[in-house]
Each structure stands twice: as structure tokens, then as C-alpha cells.
Design brief:
By secondary structure, this protein is mostly helical. It has 23 helices and no strands. The chain has helices spanning 3-26, 33-52, 57-69, 82-93, 103-106, 118-123, 129-138, 153-165, 170-198, 206-210, 213-221, 226-241, 245-256, 267-273, 275-293, 301-314, 322-334, 339-360, 369-383, 393-399, 406-413, 430-449, 458-465. The model is unreliable at 451-466 (pLDDT under 50).
Amino acid sequence: MPTSHLRLLHMLALLLSALAYAALAYATPRTQFGQLLGWVAVAFGLYVVLLKTGLSLRAGLVAALLLRLLWLPARPALSDDYHRFRWDGLLVAQGVNPYQYRPDELVPEGTASQHLAPLADSLFTGSPVAVQATLASLYSRLNSPHYYSVYPPICQLVYGTASGLFPAHERAAVLLMRLVLLLAEAAMAVVLVQLLRAFRLPAHRALWYLLNPLVIVELTGNLHFEGLMICLTLLALGLLVRGRWQLSAGVLGLAVGTKLLPLLMLPLLVRRLGWQRAILYGGLTALTLLLIFLPFISLDLLRNISRSLTLYFSKFEFNASVYYVLRAIGYRITTYNEIARIGPALALLTTSFALGLAWREKPLTWARLPHTLLLILAVYYFNATVIHPWYLVPLVALSVFSTYRFALVWSGMVVLSYAAYQTSTYTENLALLALEYAVVLAVLTWDVTRRSKPLILVEEQQTTKK
């Protein structure tokens, strides 16, 4: 195709992408599943066109920024988690530990959410009236008022800053949180390009992540902080590649302080660093984590976080795969939901797989680590009882360094899980979930069994020669 025609095609695809994202940001409530599915399908189709027709890295980076800026004034349309972000942030801004109290302890049950409970009155003595009024009004919009907060300290810092500066202004607080995520995504672009070049991979692969519709919609659009977490994780890897392992350990601690998921990378470092250095690395990571948790340490901290994590693995369920199959078998055998046993058992299975793969991994190169981590996270998600769409963002990022394409396909298919939000009871459509996982597992099988020549990394070739 002539260059002029190709440029015209790219311009048209980007304009249509902007239209799709504008519709998703401002005109598509999550209850309208058909409309949501249609616009996401358009966005993904154009995403494939842009990548397959060779959009340049420079044009792609500019497009990635502009498509994100479209969301700046919008409230998150597909997620209501931001209400809890503001709730936690208001507590942090007023010096109250968000891990110490459940929302239902601070607002009386059965009220019209106009007043705080006596406990809250004592905690917020001297706080501005606007703060107390906002907390009272937020309560009815929380999706988990009966659970302790599970958001780690780095997230709490962002929430506290945004809510502290704008306690009564939702749109301004959302805008500030979104700007933080935009900065993280800008840093992610730099980290991805540098790592790809370090591993002798084409730099334009960064666009697989940066232009991915799931990444744009769920991070910039719906204010989920997986983007900050994966940016810090890959930055830690980049520092390891450069031999700066002490600084890397601190950055990984910050990543874990954003979301706990990067802990799964630690087993992959033992054989690469050696036991002695790996222990020091883990110690520095733990020290960093301890320092950022320090402002929140209390007698109730570990107990309440433990309660929330236990509930996560033994009560919550959404868009699962292996678990739903085992749940159906459990119903046939015992006639009731065995999640309290199945959830922890699957978590133990994932841990065993991660340790086993770390022990047997070959070759032990830094270039190989993202691919191995991709497999570990995939097993973790296949065994999880809850898979919200934004959980898949790390898989998309790691796919940039791998020959596997199942995660990119999954990032498109996971929109089918939004069918659950068509009703107030959040009833999942199991047929659609079966379709989602059938396609993903088919692509994964193709990834594993295909006979095409695997990607040979320069670093791996050098290791083999040694």
C-alpha cells in the first residue's frame, strides 16, 4: 500500500478510535451491555488494524496520549470503585487509618446516610463539615461497605492527596487521580521502550500495550491502579538488567505497596541472583514495604487485612474459569457452594506452580523473566475466583516480551463479563463466560503447540554460547 494511503488509513482508524472511546467515556453506562460490547468491538478492531498495518512508534505514542486525554473530564462509567477510593482518601486526609474501620462502623445502618455514627463523630472532631457530609453521602454508593480496605499504602497516598485537596468535589478528585495514572502510563511508555531495546526486541511492540483498548478503558477510564503497579514492576526489572539490584528491590517494594501481585516475581529472582543476594533483595523489598506501611501500623492492621484477603479467596466470585467448574462439581456432591475450600486450594495450587516453574526455568536470563512471569500470572488468573477486566492489564504488558498472544485475545474477550451488570442483581451469563474462556484457552493451546520458530533473544543466544 502506498505510504500516502497508509497514512490516510491510520488517520481514519485513529479518528474512529477516538469516537469509540468518547462514546465509552460519556455515553455508555455499564448496564447497556449491547452498546458497550459494540463500541469495545470497534475499538479492538481498529487496534488490530493499526498494529497490523505498521503504525509507527512515534505516531502510536502520540495517539496513545491523545486517546487517554479524551477521558480527562469523565467520571468512571464502568466501575464504581472510585467511591471507595474517595472514602479511603477522606479518612487518610483526616489522619484516620483506613485499615482500622469498616465503612458500616462509621455510618449507621438503615439510615438515609445523612449522619455519621458516634464513633465517626469522635474520629472526625474538628474536621471540616464538608468532609463529614461527603463521607455520609458516599456511603450509599460504596460496593463493599462491610469490608475493611484492601488498597495498599501507595494507592492510599494518591487517594488521600486527591480527597484531601478536593473533599467535596468528586470530579476534581477523580481528575487528580487520573492525572497520576496518566503520569504512570507515560513512564510506562519509556520503561517498555527501554526494556524492549535492552532485550533486542522491536520497540514498536510497546504499542501492543499502550494502544490496547482494555488498558485505556480500565486504567485511564475507570481509575484502576494496576497501571502504576506494572510500571513499577517493569522498572524494577529494568534496574536488575542494569545491575542496580539494590535500587530495584526498593522499586519492587513500591510496586507491592501499590498492589500485592508483584510478590509473584520474587521466586524468579532466586536462581538469577543467587541465594545470598536474593535474600538481601527480598530483605530490601520487605524493608521498603514496611516503611510505606509504617504510617498505618496498628494492632488491628494485620488482622483486618487478613480478614479481607480471606474473604476475597473464600467468598467473592466473578468471571472465574476453573473455579466455576469445580463449584458446579461441588454443588453436585454436597449441594452447596464449596468456595471456602476451593478458593484457598486453588491459591495453594498457584503458589506451588510458581515455585515449581521458578525452580525448573531455563534459560535463566532477564529477557526470559517476563515470559515466565506471564505464565505464572496466567495460572493465577485461571485459578482465581474473581477476575475483573482490569486484572488482565499486567498480562497485556508482559505479552509485549513474549511470543504468546492469548493475553491480548483475553483482553478483548473479557468484556463479555460486563454482561453481569445488566441487572441490579449482577447475574452472570455463564454461556458468555464459557465463550470467553473457550476462545482464550484455544489461543493459549495454539500458543503452546504451534510449530513456528520461537523468538530467539540475543541475551539467550549469548547465554547458550557461554
